[in-house]
Amino acid sequence: xxxxxxxxxxxxxxxxxxxxxxxxxxxxxxxxxxxxxxxxxxxxxxxxxxxxxxxxxxxxxxxxxxxxxxxxxxxxxxxxxxxxxxxxxxxxxxxxxxxxxxxxxxxxxxxxxxxxxxxxxxxxxxxxxxxxxxxxxxxxxxxxxxxxxxxxxxxxxxxxxxxxxxxxxxxxxxxxxxxxxxxxxxxxxxxxxxxxxxxxxxxxxxxxxxxxxxxxxxxxxxxxxxxxxxxxxxxxxxxxxxxxxxxxxxxxxxxxxxxxxxxxxxxxxxxxxxxxxxxxxxxxxxxxxxxxxxxxxxxxxxxxxxxxxxxxxxxx
Amino acid sequence: xxxxxxxxxxxxxxxxxxxxxxxxxxxxxxxxxxxxxxxxxxxxxxxxxxxxxxxxxxxxxxxxxxxxxxxxxxxxxxxxxxxxxxxxxxxxxxxxxxxxxxxxxxxxxxxxxxxxxxxxxxxxxxxxxxxxxxxxxxxxxxxxxxxxxxxxxxxxxxxxxxxxxxxxxxxxxxxxxxxxxxxxxxxxxxxxxxxxxxxxxxxxxxxxxxxxxxxxxxxxxxxxxxxxxxxxxxxxxxxxxxxxxxxxxxxxxxxxxxxxxxxxxxxxxxxxxxxxxxxxxxxxxxxxxxxxxxxxxxxxxxxxxxxxxxxxxxxx
Lengths: 316, 316
Known about the structure:
Strand content of chain A: 15-25%
Oligomer: homodimer
Largest interface: A-B, 43 and 43 residues
Low-confidence stretches of chain A: none
Number of helices of chain A: 9
CATH class of the largest domain in chain A: Alpha Beta
Strand order of the largest sheet of chain A: 3-2-1-4-8
Structural class of chain A: alpha/beta
CATH superfamily of the largest domain in chain A: ATPase, nucleotide binding domain
């Protein structure tokens, strides 16, 4: 059976895994990214990880079907260059050619959200479905569209950027430069921001809340307080979910997916997220669109990126 | 050169054209739909039009590469059935098999907005672009997405329904059952509705406007008044365009098109539509998404549907 290595380059860790053509993870490891050492150092360490993984699995590097690499930023697939990777400070960094030359194998690149989407669509919660929209609710709201086993990239690999659909013009400032994007509301960051704002208002009006405004407040804390029937927390969570339903309904009207796979840290909220989301979604998606789609939790967790990256290498 | 016939079944007219594989219209004709005579009568008359067009062009029906038919409603491509066509009162009408059996040629079906999108993407304003979003601003707001010369259909042929993206939850009622859809604001119908509302308000506040509230008021009248510097009309037109920019920016973040082709009656407003639309669009599309796309007027006019339908027959 053919095997490939998928690499998920993150701001903190580099994950790499040996994956077979059925999508099974045969071996995986991770190493700190150490972004401040610069791109060449990172690419050399990725090369080292590939060689090590091959050796540990009694393979020659040349036995591999290829290497797929997920990059947390904008890529130019034609040139094989990472245009802009804010998290690790990259700009116009050639990725494909250096790795290809050093390793002598085929190298594929993809944006990390798209790679994760491809992983989930291949062997995760979207398996067997031809049209999948995969969403990650984390620090931001990432998205990827997979059609017949291929990532929809669009004109310049920006397709699926549903986190930046403007939901509330003039709303909270977003990193992208616009205001009121979906990810300012329905991400973990958005939930924390709204909770802080709600707490300020609650204090002013003397409304009680078990939420604390300490700097460490997380979205998980807000969901926990909501589950413990804290009214302020419930309003925040309700708003994040209602807006997510609106955003997903909007995206679904555009691409008409069979499945919407929802992952990322916030998806761990489980029924408190999915139950109201499934109720609200048909208020924003056309009846026939809503009838054709199921909203399901992601299944691959943090492995989605390496699995999707390997899939690229195996089938491209 | 291979030739096919494209048919565009509308609420009022059936258009049919003989088209070659370069997208040239060699011959066209139209006939009244006469929807009240029922589906079988319509299909028999379509059959008659095909035979007549072939004969008039010295072709046997069997010389045709096929027939493509654009249907103004929901279709099930697998079964070849028109599920629901509100305009002409069809429900669960088999289309492909009856035509195929009577004519003995290959028959393809598509939703009319998708067929028009395919026509524009093939030989109209989107030619040469791999990723096209085509929008029709008419009674409603129709949309179709064409990727590498193929219509994106999605799970059940609903992809591209950007007219039903909810822009203003709780806004004006839409035919789809929701409120505040893009087409309640940025269609010709939406412009007329908003103009009527603005006129009522203008009268109450004693604000002058050259707009009349007669029952025949059209979107073209409102655009004409706006061009004549009527302040009330300009506010209405501005709102329709700002909301369209928002909707198109949202859809563009999802599919990252290279071109957005804008057709339909309202697109004839020309610079009064396109100039502010192009200014506002980047406020809603991500910088890289906006940089990759051009917004252009459609070129095929009412022929887009027959051309796209023929394309289906020629390349499927």
